[in-house]
Amino acid sequence: MSENSSEGEAAGHPGGPATGFVDAWRQTGSLEALRRAVREAGRVRPAVTRRSGLSVTELATLELLVERPVGLAELARHLEVSTAAATGVGDRLEAHGHAERRAHPRDRRRTDLHITASGREEVLGHLLPMFARLAELDAGFSAAERAVVARYLDGAAEAFAAMTRDDA
């Protein structure tokens, strides 16, 4: 083995161990289906932003607000932007009538951003056709089948989450 050859070349994989793993990896139908689902899911937010006229950050904020109200500092962390940028997002959503600021119930110095009925309809209205198709799909599985699907998707979500952690 020459000084310039890599360990991967010595193992018969010119690109190294990662290339060797991928070249030897035979993806199953479930992995291929997961890749298709992830690819298509990645197209949902841009499609909704085009249809709604909202920015990606405004839509991401409304998606979060559907779950719960948030303070602007928490919103900034969620969006990975400055507090000033998060304030601007809140201002734009308020101007559209999709969100409103309210005093925090326990800390009067703090304000939380809440979704309005129009904001909720804006997000959910665009997603409703997809939700209906997913509900129909889910209804076609037995409880035992749904448990297997959930276990698989939870494991996949953990694999994705591991890629986004700071210590990865």
TrEMBL record:
Residues 27-158 form the HTH marR-type domain. It comes from the Bacteria. Residues 1-21, 90-109 are annotated as: Disordered. GO terms for molecular function: DNA-binding transcription factor activity. Signal peptide: none annotated. It holds the Pfam family MarR. GO terms for biological process: response to stress. Residues 91-102 have a biased composition (Basic and acidic residues). SUPFAM superfamilies: Winged helix' DNA-binding domain (SSF46785). This is MarR family transcriptional regulator. It comes from Nocardioides acrostichi.
